[in-house]
Specification:
The chain is α/β, with parallel strands linked by helices and 257 residues long. It has two domains: 149 residues, P-loop containing nucleotide triphosphate hydrolases (Rossmann fold, 3-Layer(aba) Sandwich); 81 residues, no CATH class. It is built from eleven helices and eleven strands. The strands form two sheets. Strands 7-8-9-4-10-11 form a six-stranded mixed beta sheet, with helices on both faces. Strands 1, 2, 3, 5 and 6 form a five-stranded antiparallel beta sheet that branches. Helix 3 packs parallel to helix 6 and helix 6 packs parallel to helix 7. The longest helix has 14 residues. It is globular and about 50 Å long. The structure holds adenosine-5'-triphosphate (ATP). It is an enzyme of class 3 (hydrolase).
Length: 257
């Protein structure tokens, strides 16, 4: 039994016309952890995420969620199980307010079932729940602000709120601090720490300072394969990781430490 792992991959492989983008990856994500997937550009991180969230079918291998194979399931089916990927900003409606966006997310159908907010609860309940989610991500004061008018970092927080609306057990975050200034990064780090309470988070993240502050476990990918795994101290001291990151973030991190 491997109950302690909420998500596992076994021999996960993706080939694009003979090019192996993901090569025999065995990933084990422990329940309750914040787990990062890192690696240099082109390492296969996004492809792994796309395989996990059913945007792509694997060429070989298996994906298990709580010990059950989800390899052949569709995106909406795994969302119903609680495995939810944070939506990109493009999926947030620019000309709706923050509150309206969260309400839409709460009413989003997942497969054949609807969130219970949709049918049985009154609009007031829906508003209360949406406000509660905005509050959780520190956006209460932005409730009536049009999304298009919100600063970038706040839009990313809104994206987290719309993901929370799907009631994830395992939340997949795709580069949550990408393109952010230091102040927004700090805010998002704190936000992820908050929302990770009582759930598992798997994130692709380039910012190694964020990874070192947040993550319990890190898997390093290089050329599609797992290069190293462990806590930040262990993987950042690994010579293979240093070599893969030559001239990039790990060295810069150390220089600024
Ligand atoms: N649809 C596709 N068709 C062909 N090759 C692809 C496709 N998607 C990804 N690749 C290739 O697979 C490799 C891994 O790409 P991927 O985007 O998963 O890496 P990544 O680690 O997310 O990189 P980055 O950090 O730059 O986002 C790259 O060489 C990429 O060119």
């Amino acid at each position: 039994m491997t109950q302690e792992f909420i998500l596992e991959t076994r021999g996960l492989t993706k080939q694009f016309r003979g090019f192996t983008a993901v090569d025999d990856v065995n990933l084990q994500v422990r329940e309750g952890h914040i787990h990062a997937l890192i690696g240099p550009n082109g390492a296969g991180k996004t492809t792994v995420f796309n395989l996990l969230t059913k945007f792509l079918p694997p060429t070989h291998g298996e994906i298990l969620y709580r010990d059950k194979s989800i390899t052949k399931m569709k995106a909406n089916e795994i969302a119903r199980l609680g495995l939810v990927r944070s939506f990109q900003i493009s999926a947030v409606f620019a000309h709706m307010t923050a509150l309206e966006n969260v309400r839409v997310a709460l009413q989003r159908p997942i497969g054949t079932s609807f969130h219970f907010w949709k049918s049985e609860r009154t609009l007031d309940h829906l508003n209360d729940r949406a406000m509660d989610l905005l509050d959780q991500v520190g956006l209460a004061e932005y409730a009536d602000v049009l999304t298009v008018e919100m600063p970038y970092g706040r839009k990313r927080a809104l994206e987290v709120a719309t993901t929370l609306a799907m009631e994830p057990t395992l939340m997949l975050l795709d580069e949550p601090t990408q393109g952010m200034g230091a102040e927004d990064v700090d805010r998002i780090v704190e936000l992820i720490r908050q929302v990770a309470k009582g759930r598992t988070v798997l994130m692709v993240e380039h910012n190694l300072s964020v990874v070192s502050r947040l993550c319990d476990r890190i898997t390093v990918l290089a050329r599609g394969a797992v290069l190293a795994e462990g806590d930040y101290k262990t993987v950042s001291a690994n010579p293979l990781v240093k070599e893969a990151y030559m001239g990039t973030e790990v060295e810069e991190e150390e220089a600024s430490a």
